[in-house]
Amino acid sequence: MAKFDREATDADIEALIEFAKTRRGVEFYVEPETFATDTTAVAVAHDGEWTRRRVGSPAVIAKVARDLALPVYDVQLTGYPARMRAYNERRRQAQDSDPV
Fold first, then answer.
1. What DSSP assignment string belongs to 41-85?
2. What burial class does residue 53 get, using C-beta atoms within 10 Å of its C-beta: 0-12 exposed, 13-18 middle, 19+ buried?
3. Distance of CA 35 to CAs 13, 38, 68, Å?
4. Taking a C-beta distance cutoff of 8 angstroms, is the pair 55, 39 a contact?
5. Are 27 and 70 within 8 A, CB to CB?
6. How far apart are CA 79 and CA 53, in angstroms?
7. Hey, is 24 helix, strand or coil?
8. What would the pLDDT profile of 13-67 be if each residue is shown by its tens digit?
């Protein structure tokens, strides 16, 4: 059995729900459990903004997605959406141009 840094909590699930309810076009991407981290889900909004939280199992985020009528994908099959990478690049460029 894997030894995780911590288990998913209700607060993790609530954070994903809040993100989804306060942004447009949210999709969930399930990430597999690793040796160090429980199963996680990434919520990605229409503009690429995203958040990642532990969910415990794919079934948990599947239920959340169903309840919110939002799509859920297996990131191992679909990869991450291009808008997420574009968002990360915009943030990196903004940080690089900020005076220190």
1. EEEE-TTS-EEEEE-SSHHHHHHHHHHHT--EEEHHHH---HHHH
2. buried
3. 21, 8, 30
4. yes
5. yes
6. 17
7. coil
8. 999 999 999 999 999 999 999 888 889 999 999 999 999 999 999 999 999 999 9
